[in-house]
Write a structure and sequence with these properties.
It contains 15 helices and 13 strands. By secondary structure, the chain is α/β, with parallel strands linked by helices. Strand 10, helix 7 and strand 11 form a beta-alpha-beta unit. The chain is globular and about 60 Å long.
Length: about 400
């Protein structure tokens, strides 16, 4: 390595080390700008590193790309890749062209997979992860922690079941080591050429569990549903806000003449939709995952299959808390607010129905303590409090670290 390369390596190492020490989720490098760190959702310019020149960013980008990745960039003017720095962590990197210069966006991925219990996820998600078959979707906007949640679910399976797991990712983010499960991780562009092709190939690799990094197109969605129909557990992500929108998005990808059939197929395989948003803690130390959980009960399946009933999914999620472990975003936010973990303002800002949540917090529905404790028809069942209630409200279990949410740094 020549002297200039050493200089750039030293600079990027110092920059990334500073970013991880500051608990940054993302790092942005742009010509004629200071490096930018995103910390707990907000961006901060790092003036101590100076303004980045065009030559500097080109050299950093060149040091990260191999010949194949350079070829992809030259053809498409952007490229995704993974970058590792010993003793610091892994980074999901996107190098792209803007205004005839390069910019670099990097997302931090710790070497260690966060333990499930450190993430303040509802305990029902453990039961979801242990399903034998079906389709599990984790949804949310970019940066909402989807990859971290999926990685923790795969890690939980790995620690508890002797199964064969195939992952298809772009790029590979968290690195899994075999524990009880056997895990093979395939990267788009390096090991496979498309999500849909990798998914089809996975069906011939004796999988029990298949993780698809993202369902980006009709072919991938169709293949994922087929894989779930053939008895596999398929896990993937979508950029949708909640369960109801997720169902509509999947159906809407298909042409009208196919939609009725896809509704029936999706209804038959859906196990759960886990939608999440990250919200800053009241003490400003990290973020909490506000989670909506839809479980594929018979009533939910009927709502998916019948176009006229799809709009009622959110109501059934709300009323299925105790019996099935489901919850809406507002129920999750209400639980966090009651425990003093988030502020009133932040709860309303992240709410799906701010007016309803405000009324709930003010005590209008105090007779039910704000949570839908009935069954799916709104009627309470004897003994329901003993069924699926553990962790269903999305609040932290006793003994969890107050700062543990800072691990949510990955998409």
């Amino acid at each position: 390595m020549n002297e200039q390369s050493n200089e750039q390596t030293t600079f990027i190492e110092a920059l990334l080390r500073a970013a991880t020490e500051a608990r940054s989720s993302d790092i942005h490098l742009k010509v004629n700008s200071y490096p930018i760190f995103r910390i707990d959702g907000d961006i901060y310019r790092q003036e101590k590193f100076g303004v980045m020149s065009k030559d500097m960013i080109e050299k950093i980008a060149g040091s990260m790309m191999d010949k194949h990745q350079l070829g992809v960039f030259q053809e498409n003017r952007d490229v995704d890749l993974a970058y590792s720095l010993s003793g610091v962590g892994r980074f999901r990197v996107n190098i792209y062209s803007q205004r005839n210069s390069l910019s670099i966006a990097m997302r931090y991925i710790p070497f260690d997979i966060p333990a499930f219990d450190s993430l303040n996820l509802p305990k029902i998600i453990k039961s979801v992860a242990m399903k034998e078959r079906g389709l599990i979707l984790v949804t949310g906007i970019t940066g909402s922690g989807k990859s971290t949640t999926l990685a923790s679910m795969i890690d939980y399976i790995n620690n508890n079941k002797p199964v064969n797991i195939i992952t298809i990712e772009d790029p590979i983010e968290y690195l899994h080591q075999d524990i009880k499960a056997a895990i093979n991780q395939r990267e788009l562009g390096m090991d496979i050429y498309s999500f849909s092709r990798g998914l089809r190939e996975a069906l011939r690799q004796d999988p029990d569990v298949i993780l698809v990094g993202e369902m980006r197109d009709l072919e991938t969605i169709e293949t994922a549903i087929t894989a779930a129909e053939t008895g596999h557990l398929v896990m993937s992500t979508l950029h949708t806000l909640d369960a109801q929108e997720t169902i509509n998005r999947i159906i809407g990808v298909f042409p009208p003449y196919q939609q009725k059939q896809i509704r029936m197929q999706l209804a038959s395989v859906i196990s759960a939709v886990i939608s999440q948003r990250l919200i800053v803690r009241a003490d400003k130390h990290g973020r909490l995952p506000s989670i909506e959980i839809m479980i594929g009960t018979e009533t939910i399946k009927e709502c998916i299959a019948d176009e006229d009933k799809t709009s009622t999914i959110r109501d059934f999620i709300k009323s299925g808390t105790v019996q099935y472990g489901m919850q809406t975003f507002d129920q999750s936010l209400y639980s966090f607010y009651k425990e003093g973990l988030i502020t009133y303002e932040d709860a309303l800002a992240e709410s799906s129905s701010p007016n309803d949540l405000a009324l709930l917090i003010s005590g209008v529905n105090s007779s039910t303590d704000g949570i839908g404790f009935g069954d799916e028809d709104g009627r309470e069942k004897d003994g329901a409090a003993k069924t699926g209630a553990s962790g269903a409200a999305g609040s932290p279990s006793s003994g969890q670290s107050a700062g543990s949410q800072s691990v949510y740094r990955s998409n």
